[in-house]
Amino acid sequence: MSLQIDLTGKTAIVTGAASGIGAGIYHALLQAGATVYGADITGSGDIQPVDVTDDAQVQSFVASIAQQHPQIDILISCAGSNVFTGAATTTPEEWEQNMQLNLRSHWQLARCCRPWLQQSGNGVIIIITSNHAYRTIPGCFPYNVAKTALTGLVQSLAAEWGPQIRTVGIAPGFIDTPGNQTWFNSFPDPTAERQRTINLHPVRKLGTPAEIGAWCAFLSSDYASFSSGVTYLIDGGRSALMQDA
């Protein structure tokens, strides 16, 4: 008998669901049978337009779902954006923008969903951070600071809101998304830079949104019921290398 992840009967929220990693997560949970509500600042089709830095919009979005469902079982907080301005040149306004989007919004969304996740009795929060939470490169400040802080948020929510709610984090490395392609396109030879990056990974490939989605489906299921308070670094072995070869 094959092992299957079945989230039938579960109600899930996914933010940042219109593209990239968020879209991969959204579709993976749908394939697993969950009822999924997607949110994104742009919105398209079934994805509702929500600015996760706006508390009123977040509260309205969650309340509209709660009116239709007595409980929320899964929250996957993925919405975020690169803010790469450098430690010396970042303005206070850029710092604040980064912290609002890439840190505070995850906490605020979790707070809004908490009563319904508790009613589930087996609620799951998954916070999407980044490999920049563990290792970074020059010029990626203050994004990396917020992503590092999210590992602490995962620990605190797990410690304070368990056992009714499990909280875990996922820190993806290079994932093949439009955002990463934009970064490759900033080089004189995007194709060469893409291949150079691939060669830095022991698995010799970039990750895909579908792979992160599959991780989220597993972590949302009963198979992962002993997992809480930890952030999983999924980077194709990139962090295992002491030096670039």
From TrEMBL:
Q: Name one GO molecular function term.
A: oxidoreductase activity
Report the Pfam families cross-referenced here. Answer: adh_short_C2
Cite the PROSITE patterns for this sequence: ADH_SHORT
Q: Which UniProt keywords apply?
A: Oxidoreductase
Annotated family: Belongs to the short-chain dehydrogenases/reductases (SDR) family.
Task: Give the top-rank taxon of the lineage listed in the UniProt record for this protein.
Answer: Bacteria
Q: What's the protein called, per UniProt?
A: SDR family oxidoreductase
